[in-house]
Design brief:
24% helix, globular, outer membrane lipoprotein receptor (LolB), chain A, 277 residues
Length: 277
């Protein structure tokens, strides 16, 4: 679901950026204002650090199974039991670059998405607070990442907008946005299928299992998952190649929960603001 949304955004972004005027480019080069990701340590866990990676988890006392499917399954299971994780992703698709930073909890999360091609930069800040997702973005972010019409993007720039799971007209969009903002949803999207191969490797000085596999979403997807080979077998990084889209997702700081606070003021989404296919 996350992949499909990025591809749609890539196509939209390419069209929008190609038509962008110098004034639009100038208006979208402002510095993004990411959602704060202040976190709280989870008691009773231990923390191990390697360059570029901090992992907070309960040490595993069970030996990691030896085959590629077993290790991949163990990594997914271990990750799904975590209370939270920070992760970062860079995606290149359709001539645009997408960057995502997210702090995912069990039922809540904080995420900032940016899209850029040359000087034009669009962004969306997102807050998942149980049954509601709140979004805030600039003009290009709302146009390309949320598929807003030009008039709606202009009028709603900078405002917090709420999308409710319990609103019939908003439920599908809520599901799309919240997917990937919780630990279980992002890990379920990362799970591999089909034939897999495994080798031992290192990543930023950390010993890992390198698992290569493929699966089918709409076309062939090649995925490589790097899993800690010491302690709890948690994912370290996942790379994906999907029909011209390349993505690198890095997991960092397991077990730190997002500090989520709903905006004091927001307006409910009007579905007429969004472009129809």
């Amino acid at each position: 679901m996350r992949t499909a949304r990025i591809i749609v955004s890539a196509v939209a972004c390419g069209c929008l950026l190609a038509a962008a005027t110098p004034a639009l480019a100038a208006s979208t080069t402002t510095t993004t204002n990411p959602v704060s990701t202040t976190t709280t340590s989870v008691p009773g866990t231990t923390t191990t650090s390697v360059p570029g990676i901090t992992t907070t988890s309960v040490p595993s006392t069970t030996a990691v199974p030896g085959t590629a499917p077993q290790i991949e399954s163990a990594a997914v299971t271990a990750a799904e039991t975590q209370t939270a994780v920070k992760w970062y992703e860079t995606v290149t698709a359709g001539g645009a670059t997408f960057k995502i930073q997210c702090n995912s909890g069990r039922v809540d999360g904080l995420r900032t998405e940016t899209v850029s091609d040359g000087p034009a930069v669009g962004y969306i800040n997102e807050i998942l607070d149980g049954p509601k997702v709140y979004i805030q973005g600039n003009n290009l972010g709302l146009l390309s990442l949320m598929q807003f019409t030009g008039a709606a993007a202009a009028s709603q720039t900078g405002r917090w907008i709420s999308i409710s799971e319990n609103n019939q007209t908003q439920a599908a969009l809520y599901l799309e946005l919240s997917s990937g903002m919780t630990v279980t949803s992002i890990i379920s999207q990362a799970a591999m299928a089909g034939n897999m191969t495994m080798t031992r490797s290192t990543m930023r000085g950390q010993p890992v299992f390198k698992i290569v596999g493929s699966k089918s979403v709409e076309t062939s997807v090649t995925e490589t998952m790097y899993v800690q080979s010491q302690g709890t077998p948690l994912p370290v990084e996942i790379t994906t190649n999907y029909s011209g889209m390349n993505a690198i997702m890095t997991f960092n700081t397991w077990g730190h929960r997002p500090a989520v606070t709903a905006p004091a003021h927001s307006v409910p989404l009007n579905v007429s603001w969004m472009r129809t296919a």
